[in-house]
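Project channel, design review

CF: Before we commit to the Asterophora parasitica constructs, I'd like one complete example in the thread so the newer folks can see what an input/output pair looks like. Taking Glycoside hydrolase family 88 protein.
RD: sounds good, go ahead.
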Amino acid sequence: MRAITALALLLNSTLSLSDTPPPPTPPPPELLSPLIPTKILATFKSLPNPVKYPQWTSTTGIWQFFDPDSWTSGFFPATPYELNKRITLCGATPANGLGIADWLSVGRSASTGLIKLQAGNGQGHDQGFLAFPFVEELAINPNNATAKTAILAFAKILAARYNPVVGATRSWDTSNATNFQVIIDNMMNLELLYVAADLSGNSTLRTIADKHADTTLKNHIREDGSTWHVIEYDANTGLVTKKRTAQGYSDSSTWSRGQAWAIYGFANMFRLTGNTNYLTTARRAAKYFLDNIPADGIVPWDYNAPLIPAPRPADSSASTIAATGLLLLAKYETTLAANKAYTDAAIGLLRNVTRLAWNPSWQSLLSNGTVNLPANNKLTGTVYGDYYYIKAGNELIARDLLKC
Ligand SMILES: *[C@@H]1O[C@H](CO)[C@@H](O)[C@H](O)[C@H]1NC(C)=O
Ligand SMILES: *[C@@H]1O[C@H](CO)[C@@H](O)[C@H](O)[C@H]1NC(C)=O
Ligand SMILES: *[C@@H]1O[C@H](CO)[C@@H](O)[C@H](O)[C@H]1NC(C)=O
Ligand SMILES: *[C@@H]1O[C@H](CO)[C@@H](O)[C@H](O)[C@H]1NC(C)=O
Ligand SMILES: *[C@@H]1O[C@H](CO)[C@@H](O)[C@H](O)[C@H]1NC(C)=O
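CF: and here is what came back for Glycoside hydrolase family 88 protein:
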C-alpha cells in the first residue's frame, strides 16, 4: 500500500485510489502510424549484401549499417516479427498500412545473417539480444530447428561467461582476466538462459540467470533505486573492486538507458521466476526513473548530467525501453491502482518521447537517441529505441488501451 501511495504521489497525477478512476490519457496516435511499416520495409530493402544491420542513424537520420557481429544486430530482424504480431492483433487496413509486406517472411529473411554468430562472436554478454528474432520465431513455430539450435548455441556462449565465485556472467572481456566487469544491461540477456533451459531441460542455465540477477541486485542498485552502470569484481575472490560508469556522465551518476534496462530486466526476471525480490527491485528502479524526470518531461541521457550547456541531450531509447518495461511491470501488479499507475506512466513516457522525437523525415521512427555521449555519439535514431516503441505499441493494443 505504501508503495502504491508513493507511486501515486510521484506521478503527481490525477490518480486517486477511489473506485472511479479518471479517464485514461490516450496513447499517442503515432504508435499506429502507417509510417512504421513503410520505414521498416524501406530499411529491409536497403540492407546491404552481404547483410549488415542498422544500429544508429547519422544526425540527419540516415541509418548506419554494421557487421552482424555487433550487439544490436538482433533488433532489426526482430522488428518485422513485431509487425507480424501487430497484424494478428489488428489485421491489415489501409489506415495502418501493415498490408505492404508478409512480415513473417521479412523477419525470417532478415534473421539469416545472424545464424553464423552461433559459432562464436565478439559480443560478450549480449547473446540474448542476438537471439531475439529466434525467440520470436519459436513463438510462431516451436518446431523450427534453426531457431532452436541458434538459441541453444547463444545460451551456451553466455553460460560459459559465468563465474561461480562472482555469481555473475562476465559482460565485457578485459585484457586483465582478473578484472571481471558486469554492466546493468546484462539483466536483459538472462531471458535467453530461461528459454534455452526450457528447450533443453538443462536447469543449470536457470540457476546461472538467477545468480546473476541476485548479484546484480546486491551490487548495482543504490539505496534510492538508481543504478551503477559498471561493477568490477575480482574474478578470483568475487569482491567488488570498483563501481563506475562507461557511458554515463560520472561514476556516481545514473545513465538513463541503464536505469531503463534495470526496470525491464528485473520485471522480466520476476515474470520468469516469481521471485518477489525481483519485483521489488523493478519497482524501485521504476520509481527512480519516473521520480527524476525533469518538469519538461524529457528523459535526459543521464539523470545527473548538467543542464548547462543546454540543451542537455535526451535519450529517446531510454523512454521506449522504460515504457515497455513499465507495461510488463504493470501486468504483475495485483491492485488496480498500481497497475494503472505504471500503465499511465508508460503512456506518459510514450506521449512525451513522441512529442520530442517522432520524426517523419528520418529513416528511423524516432530521433533524439544518445548512443554514447562520452564518445560524442548523440542526436541519432537507434534501432533499439524504435524496436521498443513498436513493442510498447503492441502491448497497448493487446491490452485494449490503444485501438487499432
Ligand atoms: C526457421 O527460422 C529461421 C530463422 O529465424 C528462418 O530463417 C527460417 O525461414 C525458418 N524456417 C521455417 C521452415 O519456418
Ligand atoms: C548445462 O549447461 C551448462 C552451461 O552451459 C553446461 O556446463 C552443462 O554441461 C550442461 N549440462 C548438460 C547435462 O548438458
Ligand atoms: C587486474 O584486475 C584486478 C581486479 O580488478 C586488480 O586487482 C589488478 O590490480 C589488475 N592487474 C593489473 C595488472 O592491472
Ligand atoms: C510528460 O511531460 C509533461 C510536461 O510536458 C510532464 O508534466 C509529465 O510529467 C511527463 N510525463 C512523464 C511520464 O514523463
Ligand atoms: C532533439 O533533436 C533535435 C534534432 O536533432 C535537436 O535539435 C534537439 O536539441 C534535441 N533535443 C534534445 C532534448 O535532445
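RD: helpful, thanks. The pocket of 2-acetamido-2-deoxy-beta-D-glucopyranose (ligand 2) is lined by residues 156, 159, 202, 204-205 (CB under 6 Å).
CF: The longest strand covers residues 53-57.
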